[in-house]
Amino acid sequence: MRRAILTLLVFFLSSASLMAGETRGSVTNLPIPRFVSTKTDETNVRRGPSLTHRIDWVFQRRGMPVEVTAEHGHWRRVRDRDGAGGWVHYSLLSGVRTVIVEQDMLDVFITPDPDAPISARFETGVIARLGECNADWCHISAGGYKGWVRKATLWGVDPDEIRD
Q: Which segments of the protein form a coiled coil according to its record (predicted)?
């Protein structure tokens, strides 16, 4: 009972601070929300921020992009592109940025220009490493291929995010 009350209190405080406009994590002082990726082939997603909470499901792919929405000690509340989420121990997450391609047969251009030559095409669901991003385009790489794609065709990068 005490653990359930603590979990609800953490959830309430995290939600209240986000609604109040707080944009930094209380533990890391990093932006909330922010994108990270899974570090291991199996990442347990728990119902609450401790090992005693039930595992609701498991990410079964290394490098999967997730969005951190809250922090509590060594735990990060995350959600995936479908909105499913839960608590993950920080040691299972990486700051390496990845994205998921959301458009089937996405043209990957040599330069950030729709008239540039196409270097590859990626299928929906491909997980790619995220590089530089300008206002409309991001440089990504996967499977030995790399190039520029429209930012709007990716999940795992904010629409207004600029990366050097």
A: none
Instruction: Take residue 61 and report the two structure tokens written for it.
Output: 């792919």
Q: In one letter, which amino acid is 106? A: L
SS3 8: helix
For residue range 72-113, list pLDDT tens digits in order.
Answer: 999 999 999 999 999 999 999 999 999 999 999 999 999 999
This prediction's pTM: 0.84
Q: Are strands 137-142 and 127-133 parallel, antiparallel or unpaired?
A: antiparallel
Q: What's the Cα-to-Cα distance from 81 to each of 13, 25, 99, rounded to whole Å?
A: 24, 21, 10
Q: Which CATH number fits domain 99-155: 3.60.140.10, 3.40.50.300, 3.40.50.10490, 2.30.30.40?
A: 2.30.30.40
Secondary-structure class of domain 2-96 per CATH: mainly beta
Residues near 40 by beta carbon (within 8 Å), at least 6 away in sequence? 62, 92
